[in-house]
C-alpha cells in the first residue's frame, strides 16, 4: 500500500482498487511509450483546429464542432491505442457510466474539454486510460497547447514529462484551492442541485472555490499540487479514470464524497491532498 494511505496516515479511509499492488507494473510501464505517442499524435491533429476560425453561434453549431473535433482525434487515437493493446476493448461512448465488464478496456476522451476548445478556451486535452478488471492501471493526458504530457502507472507514480508529481502538502481547508464542475450538459435536477449545494457549502470553508470544466484538467492540477481538492457528482468514466489514477499516484486520496473507496460505478467522486481529505468529506457528506 502506498505510504500516503497507511493506516496511521489517513485513518478514515479504506483504500480501494486504485491503491492495490500491481503485479504487472513492468508490463504496464512498457506500454506507456506507445500510449504517450498516441495521445500526442491525436492532440497534434486537434491543435490544428485551434483556435476555431469562427466561434459557434448556437447549440447546433456547438454540437457540430464538438463532433468534428472528436472525429479528427478518434481517427488518430483509436488505431494507435489498438496497436498498443490489440485485445483490449474500446468504450464507444465517452459519456458511458458504471462498471466495465471483466478484462482490459481503453477509456478515452478524444478531446477532454471539447466545449472549451470550440469556444477558443485553452483548457482541453486528449486522454487515454487502460482499465483492467475495473480499475485504471495506466493513464496519459496530453495538453497540446502547453506541450505537457501527464502519465501514471499504478504502482509506478505520476509524472509530467518525466518529472515526478506530488499533491499539495496543505492541511487546512481555509487555505485550500478547491474545485468542482459539471460532467456533461443536461444533468438531472438532483445532480444540478448537489453541484449548487456543494459549492455553497464549500465557499465559506475553502480559500477559493473554482467551478469549471473539464474534470481532467482539475485533476491534473490536484496531482501537480496546484489545486488541493476536486469533487464531482458524476459517474462518467472518461472524465475521471485517467485523472483519478494521476491523483492517486501523486499521493492524493481518491474516494467518493463520503470517503468510501471510489470505482467507476461510484455515483460521485472526490480527489484530495491527504491533509485535506477529512475536512472535504466533512463538508461534502452533508450535501443532499
Write the layout of secondary structure elements.
Layout: H1 25-47, H2 59-84, E1 89-90, E2 104-112, H3 114-118, E3 125-132, E4 135-143, E5 148-153, E6 157-160, E7 163-164, E8 177-180, H4 189-202, E9 208-211, H5 215-224, E10 229-232, H6 241-249, E11 253-255, E12 269-272, H7 277-284
Parallel strand pairs: 1-2, 8-9, 8-10
Antiparallel strand pairs: 2-3, 3-4, 4-5, 5-6, 6-7, 10-12, 11-12
Keywords: Magnesium, Metal-binding
Protein name: 3'(2'),5'-bisphosphate nucleotidase CysQ
GO molecular function, one term: metal ion binding
Cα(first) to Cα(last) distance is 32 Å
CATH third-level topology of the largest domain: Fructose-1,6-Bisphosphatase, Chain A, domain 1
Sheet with the most strands: spatial strand order = 1-2-3-4-5-6-7
Name the CATH homologous superfamily of the largest domain: Fructose-1,6-Bisphosphatase, subunit A, domain 1
Specify the CATH class of the largest domain: Alpha Beta
Radius of gyration: 18 Å
> What percent of residues are in strands?
15-25%
Give the overall form.
globular
Give the helix tally: 7
Uncertain residue segments: 1-9
Helix content: 25-40%
* Average pLDDT score: 93
Question: How many beta-strand segments?
Answer: 12
In the CATH hierarchy, what is the architecture of the largest domain at level 2? Answer: 2-Layer Sandwich
Count of separate structural domains: 2
N to C succession of SSEs: HHEEHEEEEEEHEHEHEEH
Structural class: alpha+beta
* Biggest pleated sheet: 7 strands, mixed
InterPro entries: Inositol_monophosphatase-like
Keywords: Magnesium, Metal-binding
GO molecular function, one term: metal ion binding
Pfam families: Inositol_P
